[in-house]
Design brief:
The chain is built from five helices and no strands. The protein is mainly α. The longest helix has 26 residues. The two termini are 23 Å apart.
Length: 125
């Protein structure tokens, strides 16, 4: 990849990532089992997949800063969502689901760390 302005790479990757997250959230109602409990499975899954992908990109593109900006900072940053995670946690607490909120917080943290670790581990030589 030729030298592109860093901000443009992040912008392009972020646009694709955010659009992918939006599209997945739009098709999620096609799977009613995702909504059988108050647990926010869609956001949880998106954050896990994004963390795994970031782990992979950090290894594969370790020596390619432009690709890391495009796919890591941009795509993964636009795809994953801390703000939705935070809002859903507050909603769970507001609805009296403290136990589910706690599982969501701890589960997201552990799953995303495991996803990033797994992505990095699988692709290291």
């Amino acid at each position: 990849m030729t030298e592109w302005p860093s901000g443009l790479l992040v912008f392009l990757g972020g646009g694709v990532g955010a659009t992918a997250r939006w599209a997945l959230a739009r098709i999620a109602p096609l799977w009613p089992s995702l909504h059988a409990s108050p647990f926010p499975w869609v956001t949880f899954s998106i954050n896990f997949v994004g963390s795994f992908a970031l782990g992979c990109f950090l290894v594969v593109f370790a020596e390619r800063p432009n690709w890391r900006l495009l796919l890591g900072t941009g795509l993964c940053g636009g795809f994953t969502t801390m703000s939705t995670f935070s809002a859903e946690t507050i909603e769970l607490l507001g609805k009296g689901h403290a136990a589910i909120a706690t599982v969501y917080i701890l589960g997201t943290l552990l799953a995303c760390m495991a996803g990033a670790w797994l992505g990095m581990r699988l692709l290291k030589a």
